[in-house]
Amino acid sequence: MIPEFFRVDPSWDEQIERIVAAVERVAAIEGTAADTPTLRRATRVGAVHSSVVIEGNRLSPVEAVAVANGDVVLAPQRDVEELRNALAAYELVDRLDPWSVGDLLEAHRVLTTGLVAEAGAFRTVDVEIVNPFGDVIHTGSRHAKVPRLVAELLEWGRACEHHPLVVSGAVHFLIEHIHPFRDGNGRIGRLWQTLILTRWEPLFAWTPTETLIAAHQSGYYEALQASRDPDIDAAPFISFMLGVIGDALRGYEDAATRHVGINVGTHGAAERDPAEVVLRLITADPHITAAGLAARMGLTARHVERLIKRLRDEGRLVRVGSRKAGQWRTVTSRDASWRG
Question: Which of 227, 255, 283 corresponds to the end of one domain?
Answer without folding.
Answer: 255
